[in-house]
């Protein structure tokens, strides 16, 4: 609360300074004609506090939640509100285990927030006595909808990294990325290694080995290990959207020592000749 009040006051003070400067430039004419009232000073901090609070609430609404809401409304039209409440409650409990991800030095840990909500949905559906296949189907439906591009620009942005990989200018970035992901930001997080040898990456110059999976750790901790592999299936879709074909021989979710992500650029089909 103190932080919120402080932010609101700073916003209000900034507003006063900016408006005061404008008035100074326009001259005393504005004062004489009542275009500025000192009573506004009382409202400015309240305006700043309101704006800050609204912005904070907007940030708290995770972008993926609406897709989970949509799928629950589709499959449980009469129970959707109760299901969403249960998912939120479970998410709040589970997120205590993944709160570190927001400030983790390992960027892959950022995936854990979505995975936590994913697990909260699984627990909610399990509580409804749904089968594994039913739960899998509903979870994948929400996730596929979430990762799908919403516009041509969004689609282009998803394909951009694959176009840049292999270029000389991206090598320093890959080296920096490797330094960040190769060290755990938290014991419950990820650890990975970037592979840039073209011989090992189908001439692409990029691959990644997940050596420790934060998602598997989270799911196993909450007795949901078998469900972790559902998210592995989403990797195929995200790779496809990036214009790549995923080639993976092993995953930690199925008991392997690592997940070996390798990619191959999708070949454009030749234009049929007459």
Tell me the strand order in the biggest sheet: 1-2-4-3
Number of beta strands: 4
What value does the Rg take, in angstroms? 25 Å
Structural class, judged by helices and strands? Answer: alpha+beta
Percent of residues in helices comes to 55-70%
How many domains make up the 3D coordinates? Answer: 2
Order of helices and strands: HHHHHHHHHEEHHEE
The overall pLDDT average reads 83
Tell me, what's the shape?
Answer: globular
Strand content: 5-15%
Give the low-pLDDT segments. Answer: none
| Number of helical regions | 11
Written description of the protein model:
By secondary structure, the chain is α+β, with helices and mostly antiparallel strands. The protein has two domains: 2-60, no CATH class; 65-265, no CATH class. Helix content is 57%, strand content 8%. It has helices at residues 2-26, 29-32, 40-60, 65-75, 80-94, 111-127, 132-147, 152-164, 171-181, 214-221, 228-241, and strands spanning 191-195, 207-212, 244-247, 259-265. A four-stranded antiparallel beta sheet has the order 1-2-4-3. It is globular, with a radius of gyration of 25 Å. It starts with a helix and ends in a 9-residue tail after the last strand.
Name the features:
274 residues, alpha+beta, 2 domains, four-stranded antiparallel β-sheet, 57% helix, globular
Outline of the structure:
By secondary structure, this protein is of the alpha+beta class.
């Amino acid at each position: 609360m103190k932080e919120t009040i402080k932010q609101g006051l700073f916003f209000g003070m900034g507003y006063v300074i900016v408006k005061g400067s404008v008035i100074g430039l326009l001259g005393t004419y504005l004062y004489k004609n009542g275009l500025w009232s000192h009573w506004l000073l009382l409202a400015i901090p309240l305006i700043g506090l309101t704006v800050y609070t609204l912005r904070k609430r907007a940030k708290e609404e995770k972008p993926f939640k609406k897709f989970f809401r949509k799928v629950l409304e589709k499959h449980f039209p009469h129970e959707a509100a109760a299901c969403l409440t249960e998912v939120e409650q479970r998410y709040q409990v589970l997120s205590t285990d993944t709160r570190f991800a927001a400030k983790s030095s390992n960027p892959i840990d950022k995936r854990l927030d979505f995975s936590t909500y994913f697990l909260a949905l699984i627990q909610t559906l399990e509580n409804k006595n749904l089968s594994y296949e039913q739960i899998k189907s509903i979870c994948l439906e929400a996730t596929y909808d979430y990762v799908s591009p919403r516009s041509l620009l969004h689609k282009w942005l998803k394909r951009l990294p694959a176009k840049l990989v292999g270029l000389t200018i991206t090598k320093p970035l890959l080296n920096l990325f490797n330094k960040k992901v190769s060290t755990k930001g938290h014991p419950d997080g990820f650890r990975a290694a970037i592979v840039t040898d073209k011989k090992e990456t189908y001439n692409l110059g990029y691959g990644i080995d997940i050596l420790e999976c934060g998602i598997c750790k989270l799911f196993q901790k909450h007795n949901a290990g078998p469900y972790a592999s559902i998210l592995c299936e989403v990797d195929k879709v995200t790779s496809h959207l990036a214009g790549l074909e995923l080639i993976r021989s092993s995953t930690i979710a199925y008991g392997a020592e690592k997940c070996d992500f390798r990619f191959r650029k999708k070949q454009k089909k030749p234009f049929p000749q007459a």
